[in-house]
Amino acid sequence: MKKNKNILIMVFFYITGSALAIGYLPWWGLAVVFAFGALLFVKPLWQELLLGLLLGAALWAGISFIMSAQNQHILYHRFVEGKILPLNPFLLTAILGGLHGLLGSLFGFMLGKWRKNLRK
After folding, report:
1. CB 59 within 8 A of CB 18
2. Is pLDDT above 70 for 3?
3. Mean pLDDT throughout 48-54?
4. Rounded Cα distance, 51 and 13, in Å
5. In this model, does residue 57 exceed pLDDT 70?
6. pLDDT tens digits for 66-87?
7. Secondary-structure percent of the chain, ordered helix, strand, coil, rounded to 5
8. CA 9-103-87 angle, 5° bins
9. Full domain range(s) for residue 75
């Protein structure tokens, strides 16, 4: 039960931190939140990378959809109808956002390992 509670606290931190970062920082603010989260919540590398990848993809795709919905998906339809992109623009944004979150989590994990080695 404690493990599930810890995961819920982590996800809550990432979502609230991301909401604050989106409001006050540029696009790279999400990587700062993911790095800080990986530094605070020490988990195995694969868990940090998976969490960064999935949450980054979900957040960027969600933000992209909200921004596109505010202008009735005009740019989205131009990309799809003009065959400019080989895949869905939301999917491309989710892939890039996932990589962005993954790199932020990796940086936080490595920073935590470096900090741990300094204490020894």
Report:
1. yes
2. no
3. 90
4. 12
5. yes
6. 888 898 888 888 877 777 777 7
7. 80, 0, 20
8. 105
9. 2-119
